[in-house]
Input
Amino acid sequence: TNTRNEEMYLKVTKTVAGNGADASKAFNFKLTLGNDNGKLKMSKNGEDAQPITLSIDMTYRFTLKDGEYAVFTGMDKGTAYSVAEDDYSKDGYTTTSVNETGNLNFSTTAAFINSKTEQGKANLTVTKKVDGLHADTTKKFHFTVSFLKDDAPIADTKLSYRMMTSDGLVTGTFNVTDGKAEFELADGEYVVITGLDKGTTYT
Output
C-alpha cells in the first residue's frame, strides 16, 4: 500500500444498474468507525466538506443515489471502519460491494452496486481491489472478459456499461468482438455490464 502526504479519505460510491433498477432511488448507508477524534468531515458529490458528528454507537447515516458519492476525511491513520447498506433484496436488488470494511491506512474507496434486471436479461459486475504493503492503489489494471453462449463466443455486438472511476460515474458501450470486451480498473473501481442474455457464461 502506498502512503502519501495528502489527506487520507474514505470514499463511498453508489451505482445502480439493470432494466428494473430505479436510478432516482435513495439508498441508506451506515458508516461505523472504531474511534472518533472529533475531526470528521463529509463532502457529497464534490461539495465543500462539512463537519459531522458520530452517534453514540460510533455511526453516521447517509443516503446515496445512482452516481453519487460521499467522501469522509479527518480520520486518524489506522482507524477501523465499516460501511453497510440497508438490505434491498426484498425490492429485487442484488448488491455487490468492495472495500466495505477495513483499516484506514491509506485513502480507500468503498464501492456499492445494486442491480435489478427483468425481462430475461442479466448483468455482470467486475470489481477491483488492491491490497498489500507496497500496492499502488492508483494503478490501472487491464481486463478482458470473454462471453460465451452455448459454448461459443457471442456474436459481435454492443453492450452498455456503467463504470465507477475515481472521476465519477461513466456510462457507455463496449464493442464486443469475438465475444470479448476490454477495460481497465484501479482499486475500488468497478464496471457493470448490462443487457446480457440470461444463460451467457463468462471468463
